[in-house]
Design goal:
The chain is mainly alpha-helical. It has 21 helices and no strands.
């Protein structure tokens, strides 16, 4: 390729960057592909690596993580061959993020380890600490506590210096998680308190909020419930200031758990309602459903039936709005069960029918049979013996054929009714 041709490839790359910033991803993809073709023809490894990296970013934007990984994997040896270790570390950081989004924790671990190796080449201690922290988080989350422990110790060593207070605070919080998982609750509490002290000395609001949250959780674990509420409320105030919606949802959920343990049912339910609204803002129906489900269960335990049913109805509405038939089936079944439990058996018929129909359509015969069994019991109680008995018999046969332990319960019920099984 001639020099002007290389210039054309660079022009395509710049066009792709401009379109990416404007959110015009499809045209950016076309321009980036043109750039890659030009750089590859010219055997320009630096340009090719840049084009591959940009293509990875664009494919991630449009929801094609597998294609993003293909381009990242293609770019890595090009960066390495030119000695661009900082660029290589950036590639592995993105590999980590894509793998995390896919739930591929082994991929996360491999990417973080590669990132560490690249950062070590340029002596970037701050970058190494960040990569170690990400990797240790993955290991703690996947239960690989011993491996995480050695990484946390490395991270504490890397951040043992003036100006490293924020990073050290983050590693102390991870160390506290490891301590808790290995049965050292009191040591974990001390780590959290020290992490909070360092975060405050670093004058980092985000680090202070994270430390307050984890300190609140650890105080709850060790039975210091009122102090736990105080620290978690401080964390919640910080989340509000930072507009940290993910963190707000997590802190509200922890607060609700502590309030429930203190017997403050109204406060716990209020926290969970706010958490549900937060997850709605984040467009995360799963989080909203979990918060509403927990709130309804607390209301039931506190014998606040009307409130429990209102929350249950909200849970069903969120499930329906999500467009997820599995979530709608589950919420319908739970709503039916709550109605039946609270003496509104006639109203439970429709939710149980709907749950069973959705479960059958989803290829979930055991769940559908359980729903049919519940529906059969409700109909029998209402005097609709023919349909009720038929549903019970059918549910029992299905569950028995599937080897489900739920079959035994139905068998006992059918026997008590004097029906042949």
């Amino acid at each position: 390729m001639t020099a002007p041709d290389t210039g054309l490839a660079m022009k395509h790359l710049h066009e792709a960057v401009t379109r990416e910033r404007a959110g015009d991803y499809e045209r950016a993809l076309r321009a980036a592909q043109e750039a890659l073709t030009g750089f590859a023809t010219a055997r320009d490894r630096t340009g090719s690596a840049a084009a591959h990296h940009l293509l990875a970013i664009l494919h991630a934007h449009v929801g094609r993580p597998d294609k993003a990984l293909e381009h990242l994997n293609a770019a890595a040896p090009l960066r390495e061959s030119t000695g661009d270790w900082a660029g290589l570390a950036s590639l592995h950081q993105m590999r980590f993020e894509v793998a995390l989004g896919l739930g591929n924790y082994e991929g996360c671990r491999a990417a973080a380890e590669s990132m560490l190796a690249a950062l070590a080449k340029v002596g970037d201690r701050s970058g190494q600490a960040s990569a170690l922290h990400q990797l240790a988080q993955i290991l703690v989350g996947s239960g690989q506590v011993q491996d995480a422990q050695s990484l946390v110790e490395q991270g504490l060593w890397l951040t043992d210096g003036v100006g490293e207070e924020r990073g050290r605070s983050a590693f102390l919080l991870l160390a506290a998680q490891v301590d808790q998982l290995t049965g050292s609750s009191d040591r974990a509490l001390l780590r959290c308190r020290e992490a909070l002290r360092l975060a405050r000395s670093a004058n980092s609001r985000a680090a202070v909020v994270d430390a307050l949250h984890q300190l609140g959780v650890q105080l709850s674990v060790t039975g210091r419930l009122q102090e736990s509420v105080e620290r978690l409320e401080e964390a919640l105030d910080g989340r509000e200031v930072l507009r940290d919606l993910h963190g707000r949802g997590a802190t509200l959920t922890e607060l609700a758990a502590v309030e429930e343990r203190l017997g403050r049912h109204s406060e716990a339910i209020g926290r969970l309602r706010y958490a549900a609204r937060t997850y709605h803002e984040l467009d995360q129906p799963g989080g909203a459903l979990e918060a509403l489900h927990r709130a309804a269960e607390i209301a039931l335990a506190a014998e606040r039936g009307d409130e429990a049913l209102q929350l249950s109805s909200e849970q069903l509405h969120v499930a329906e709005a999500s467009g997820d038939p599995a979530a709608t089936a589950a919420a319908s079944f739970v709503h039916g069960a709550r109605l039946a439990r609270l003496g509104q058996a006639p109203a439970s018929v429709e939710p149980f029918r709907r749950a069973a129909a959705l479960q059958r359509s989803l290829g979930l015969p055991e769940a559908a049979a359980v729903s049919d069994g519940m529906l059969g019991q409700v109909l029998l109680a209402q005097g609709q013996t023919s349909e009720g008995a038929a549903l019970l018999q059918g549910a029992y046969k299905t569950l028995r054929a599937l080897g489900s332990p739920n079959a035994d319960d139905l068998h006992e019920l059918i026997a008590a009714l004097g029906e042949p099984s």
